[in-house]
Amino acid sequence: MIRSMTGFGKATSEADGDALSVEVSSVNHRYLDCSIRLPYAWAAIEPVLKQVVKDLVARGKLNCTVNRKRPGSPVERVLFDENTARQYVEASQKLGQLLGDDQTVSLDVLAQMEGVFYHEEEEEDLDIVKDRVTPVLTAAIERLNAMRLAEGAALAQDLRHRIELLREALAEVEKRLPSLNERYESRLRTRINELKAETAITEERIAIEVAMLAEKGDVTEEVVRLKTHLDRMVELLESKEPVGRRLDFLSQEVQREVNTLGVKTRDGDVVTFVLTMKSELEKIREQVQNIE
Question: 7-73+125-148: which CATH topology?
């Protein structure tokens, strides 16, 4: 089953009042592009978490957010930098002497000066952190993939319907091929007679003209290739592997054949069916962009 590249997943874990949550969202992208937001102290485990994502997701732009809450157990400690505070005091004393005032900086003001108080995060065993975050991230991605799979099923159903519409239009074109070939054959015979009437024309020139006219009018190869491409698209929709890129490539090939079909045929009915095929194909190409 194919998967969409759009989805959302969330998973949580709690132990001893330490709550952990992971949210993962994804949108379309040509390749896999993963961004992970972590508490600063956990930055070192980001490569491990990105590998987890890579193992479970093939394509899409993913945003992963890891949040942690520890009620009643602060993550940070507030510390006092005595040297920085002393420098502020000494500087304020020199300023007071310069102004003829012996007052120094007050405690309230000093406490607000940058660097006097600072926060220091408690050190943690990152191996333990990794072992705890990894299963939660995995669960969030599994829920993300479940949503992507559900959307993928809807996409596949819509694509099958549109491929069937393409086949129906192509079948109508095929029905008209015998009459179209008769017209081209008639034109071909007329052109041959015209060439033969020109005394200065060579047999080689006649052969070239005949070959060019025949090539311009025959669309049998395009029809055969179109049927093959459409069959292959249906096969890919049943694949368990990521097929978005291959479907995108195939849709481009189908568009090329349809365009050629439209250029080669000048029959009014055929042109109508070609326009129908182009319309459905445009919708297919839009849908394919969202497939993993």
Answer: Ribosomal Protein S5; domain 2 (3.30.230)
